[in-house]
Amino acid sequence: MSVLDVKDLTIHIGDTKSPAHAVDSVSLHIERGEVVALVGESGSGKTLTGLAIAGLLDPPLRRVGGEITLLGENLSALPESQLRRRRGDRLAMVFQDPMATLNPVLRIETQLVETIRAHRNVGRNAARDEALAMLDEVGITLPAQRLRAYPHELSGGMRQRVAIGAALINRPALLIADEPTTALDVTLQAQILALIDQYRRDHGTAVLWITHDLGVAAGFADRVLVMYAGQIVESGPCARVLQAPAHPYTAALLGAIPGSVPPGTPLATLPGQPPGLSPPPEGCRFRARCPRAAAACIAAPPQVATGEARTVRCFFPLVTPP
Amino acid sequence: MSGFMIRRLIQALLVLLTMSALVFVAVFAIGDPLALLVDPQADQHDIARVRRGLGLDQPWWVQYARFLGALVHGDLGRSFVHGEPAIRLVLERMPATLELAVAALLIALLVGVPLGLWVGLQPRSWSARLIDALSLLGFSLPTFWVGMMFIMLFGVWLGWLPTGGRGETTLWLGIPLSIGSLDGWRHLLLPALTLALFKCSLLLRLTASATREALRQDYVRFARARGLHPARIVFVHVFKNILIPIVTVSGLEFGSLIAFAVVTETVFAWPGMGKLLIEAIGQLDRPVVVAYLLVTVTLFVTINLAVDLLYALLDPRVRLRSRS
């Protein structure tokens, strides 16, 4: 049984007459101890997918279809009062900006202890001891001192460690990480990645890693899902996808990474912009920017398997099906 | 910390000095108090005697220098009209004004903040829209008009509440207060409501917008992602943050409540400092005007200092320290 199983998740933004189809029939699953990277550019719907799984969509965002199953339980059927008991307990989420994630007027201790006590009947002192142990586990030096500190007294990297500690303190089965390293410098990025990698090895936590950075996904994720204009266009084992992309969009993304071409050669750029999504274009959504587009692409391309547990949503994939 | 206090104290003294000089010159320029003080039948000789007696025969800078000299000894001069020490007249009236201002601030906070929180949390509900519209009304109606309407409605037509004076006062630590008796409460209610209406609307709108702002912050989303109870998110995570602007504005507005009490006190014949000031200005009773303003400025400075200290207490990011 997968830890997380998402089927045909569809999210609309705005009124019911002409909504933007921000996320369209996204399906994914994550196994115990597995890291899945959800990669895409801004506006591709990757963050909304993460928020929807955590049940954190607010109007004007609406989940209009799909089923989210966590540890065999259908989350999409639960009322908010029940969903709240799962959040921070069985599934946890950390966000991008460590400077804004923690409440500035509450001590670190308060924010950790309240997370424990929101889900488990633990005494104040026992919760405090747990919080202390957690800070130690996420690599905070002098944890007893930091526990009494306010967020502004910690550096950005330390704050992200604290936020991750607060998210993991009830030992969730699933961690949704929405670009938690984007706001940090490269050294800290590597440290945070190593921290989460070690944690999931120790605890078997499933991780959904949302990022726009293919480089981060490359060194860390087991599988990668590439999103474009609200759809997953390619999925497969990380190493295989990055080595030999099947979808023209993935190939274009890889071509735009500095270092992917010899020095002196200009980086490849994609002409045009992502399409508007209210309503989304007919057929393949990447059609207008795709170097391989042909007449057939006016119809919606099927999701085809290309072997090695890979799928691609394209009529003319770069990797031929077996 | 102590360096901070000392700097604030020096600032306050400079403000007081400048203000007293301005008022001294201004009242001097308005007119000659003797024209109002002395019997029109009095002869030139009598007038000159009174003028000398009050020290008004000297040029204004000499008068100001004398005033400052006396001030060092805690003497603010005697009222031209009453012959009593001006500062005593003002301080006698101060409890009435402070009582009115505190009552108005409490009403504004107890009504404005909860309603503002509701409007901020449920901006789409019809009740929030209604409250929001009413607060706009409360924001724009002039105080004196509201006071007169209250008197018409509750005093004259319905006859429920008295419309003037403080009613029966009781002594608390030697200070006469209206809130000690039912009769005093009945007298206090209308002027306090009148004075509170504007501040209540202000605090309501401030609380509502601060709440909306706080709800958009990442820390609220993260609190929800951790599965905290909605009540904890609102009353701890949001409220502790919006308390910072609420306390700041309340403190500053408390000073202006004391100042605006002048109008309300006049409308409701509330025997406070404001009413005394209006009378003193009418009679060009300079020592009383100066004493009133010195007391008011001192109150302002004290309140601002208290707000700064409270601010540092509420927001851990603010620490008051002196830089050398």
3D architecture notes:
The complex is a heterodimer of chains A (322) and B (324). Chain A is α/β, with parallel strands linked by helices and 322 residues long. In chain A, 31% of the residues lie in helices and 23% in strands. In chain A, a hairpin with a 2-residue loop joins strand 9 (223-228) and strand 10. In chain A, helix 4 packs across helix 5, helix 4 packs parallel to helix 7 (156-168) and helix 5 packs across helix 7. The two termini of chain A are 28 Å apart. Chain B contains twelve helices and two strands; from the N terminus they run H-H-H-H-H-H-H-E-E-H-H-H-H-H. The longest helix of chain B is centred in the C-terminal third of the chain and has 38 residues, at 230-267. The mean pLDDT of chain B is 84.
Question: In short, what is this structure?
Answer:
The complex is a heterodimer of chains A (322) and B (324). In chain A, 31% of the residues lie in helices and 23% in strands.
What Rg of chain A, in angstroms, do the CA atoms define? 21 Å
Backbone CA Rg of chain B: 24 Å
Largest β-sheet summary of chain A: 8 strands, mixed
Q: Could you tell me how far the N terminus lies from the C terminus of chain A, measured between alpha carbons in angstroms?
A: 28 Å
Low-pLDDT stretches of chain B: none
Overall mean pLDDT of chain B: 84
Keywords (chain A): ATP-binding, Cell membrane, Membrane, Nucleotide-binding, Transport
Pfam families (chain A): ABC_tran (PF00005), oligo_HPY (PF08352)
Membrane topology (chain A): Peripheral membrane protein
InterPro entries (chain A): AAA+_ATPase (IPR003593), ABC_Ni/Peptide_Import (IPR050388), ABC_transporter-like_ATP-bd (IPR003439), ABC_transporter-like_CS (IPR017871), Oligopep_ABC_C (IPR013563), P-loop_NTPase (IPR027417)
